[in-house]
Each structure stands twice: as structure tokens, then as C-alpha cells.
Amino acid sequence: MMSAGDAQARETLERIVECLEKEKCENFQDCLNWARLRFEDYFVNRVKQLIYTFPEDAATSTGAPFWSAPKRFPRPLQYSSSDPSLLNFITATAILRAETFGIPVPEWTKNPKEAAEAVDSVIVPDFEPRKDAKIVTDEKATSLTTASVDDATVINDLIAKLERCRHNLSPDFRMKPVQFEKDDDTNYHMDVISGLANMRARNYSIPEVDKLKAKFIAGRIIPAIATSTAMATGLVCLELYKVLDGGHKVEAYRNTFANLALPLFSMAEPVPPKVVKHRDMAWTVWDRWVLKGNPTLREVLQWLEDKGLNAYSISCGSCLLFNSMFPRHKERMDKKVVDLARDIAKVDLPPYRHHLDVVVACEDQDDNDVDIPLVSIYFR
């Protein structure tokens, strides 16, 4: 990035420096302050500036009304802790901010009264519109400017600022990016997304939507309750009843192929899983081998060797923990498998996890490949 003189790199670095310098959060109240001021900036101050620059009776250079269709004249919002949608949005935004900084979320955030008191304590500075503010009205314009020598100079300055910020951070400081997941109702992602959309809709007097409707829009979900989805769910449930009832042979189950457009329905008995045999053992794709005691890599290889299997490759996720072709991998023999997974595969193992799964490629004594089940390594 040192040599990248482009506007996008400059904008990215400016956001990083801003996050680590001006807007760094040390505790949850800092996160709440940040969220409250962001609300004021996005939905109050920017709208006030827009109205100041382009009043309701503003006209274009041709004399036509500026606020003509499809433009809507906006209205700045007024924060009130008695409005649950505003309070939920600010609290959810603060929680996500805290998550990125690794700051614990206090229990009182679940109490609307205590959360409202905390938000009300935030000091919001008065806003004064700028007379020289430039607002882009060209719909075809982009936010990125053409790269220039000035961009390269600014980028170098920003990198120097980052270096200074790094020296002021503790050695264990880490920021965690939040990956958007719309289907988890406990992670506050859709609370923030729906809140952002509804606040902006409120600015322009557009009807608001609930979180479920916002989830449909964000995920581009096409409702198919009465068609193929309902049919597939029903067929799966029929097979699930057989599993729960127990005692059924494989011939009692059914695989179904259906095409509603034709229409065509075809049912067949499922094929039993392939049975792999080795010595006095037999297994299928549904089996799993378990190894407890937080073993080292050497102990795992020995455990497999006792079964008459020579492991030449062990992987976790997309990362290779061991391969017999690489001489340097022999240095890992006395390391715990869980430590290799953390250091090499960067596996996140929260406190409630007790095991991790590895894929092992093996050969028998005759150098024939043997497909073995997943191996679950228990480290707690």
C-alpha cells in the first residue's frame, strides 16, 4: 500500500486511523457514545446541512424546483429515549462496535430503562451548518476521486500515523471484523441493518418495515412457502418420523425426486452406505473415530499405526497440519494437534468446544489408500 497512490487505499487508511486514533473505544460507554453520535451525524446533522444548502423552495439552474419527483424533501430526526426503535438501534450499534474491539457487553443493555439512561448521558454537541459545504447532486458521480500524487503523499502520512498508533496499543490488542449473518437473531446484525434502513426511511417519510421484512430484503429471499419448499419440508419430515420411531430397516426409507414444473414425482429406496473394511474393522461414511487425551501429532500417528494404517497427511479445514513429504513437518511431531490447529489453521476454539475434527489420508501396509472416517481430537 506504500506505493499505491489511489483514492480507495487512501479512504481505507483514513478509516483505520480514525478507528484507532480519534474513535478508539476503551469501554462499553465509549461504544455507546460512538453509536449515539453516529446517529446524530447520519440522521440529524447531515440532513440539516442538506436542508441548509438546498431549502424546500430551492430551484435548479434552469428554474425548476430542486425538490421535485423523484426527490423527497427530508426531515431531520429528533432523538428520544422513549422511542424503542431509536433506542434499540443505538444499543445494537454499540454492541457491534464493542464486539469489534473485544469489549464485554454489560447485562444492563438488555434493560431498556438502564440503556436509555446511559444513552441520555451522552453529550451531543450543537450542530452549525457550514456555508461552504459542497454536496454532490450528480447521480452518476462516485465517491472515489482520480488517483494523484497528493493521494500517494497522504497515504504515506497515514501509514506513518498508523505506526505511531501501533506503539500506543497494548501487545494483546486485536480488532475483530464482524461477518454479516442475517439468520442469527441473537447477533444484532439485522437489528442494526433494519434500524439504519428505518431511520433513513423516517428521514424521507417512507413507510418503515419490521426486522423480518428487512431480513427478506437483505437476503433477497423469495417466499416459496406454498411450493417446492413446503413439499421438500414435508417429505423430510416423513422420513424424520421413521428415524424417531426407530427400528426401521433401510428399505423403509425413501429418496424422492420431484419436479413441479412437469410435474414428476419419483421415489426410490436409498442405497446403503459403502462399507469399508480393514483388518477386523468396518465403517461407513456416517462413522467417526474419536481420540481423547489431547494427543500430540506423534501420538495420533502411532494410534493409527496400531490400526495398521500409515498416515501421510493430516489436515484441518483447508490447512495442512502434517504431510510426510515435507521434512520440516517432522518438527511438529511433539506438538499438540490442537496447538497446530490454532497456530497453522487459525481455528477459533471457544471455551465450550471440546474437540476438533481432522481429515487423515492413510495407506495400509501394501501402500493402498484407505478412506477412514473423520477423526475427532478431544483436547478438553
From TrEMBL:
GO terms for cellular component: cytoplasm; nucleus. Keywords: Ligase. Pathway: Protein modification; protein ubiquitination. Gene3D superfamilies: Ubiquitin-activating enzyme E1, SCCH domain, Ubiquitin-activating enzyme E1, UFD domain. GO terms for biological process: DNA damage response; ubiquitin-dependent protein catabolic process. Residues 253-375 form the Ubiquitin-activating enzyme E1 C-terminal domain. Signal peptide: none annotated. One of its GO terms (molecular function) is ubiquitin activating enzyme activity. It holds the Pfam family E1_UFD. PANTHER family: UBIQUITIN-ACTIVATING ENZYME E1, UBIQUITIN-ACTIVATING ENZYME E1 1. Belongs to the ubiquitin-activating E1 family. This is Ubiquitin-activating enzyme E1 C-terminal domain-containing protein. It comes from Brassica carinata (Ethiopian mustard).
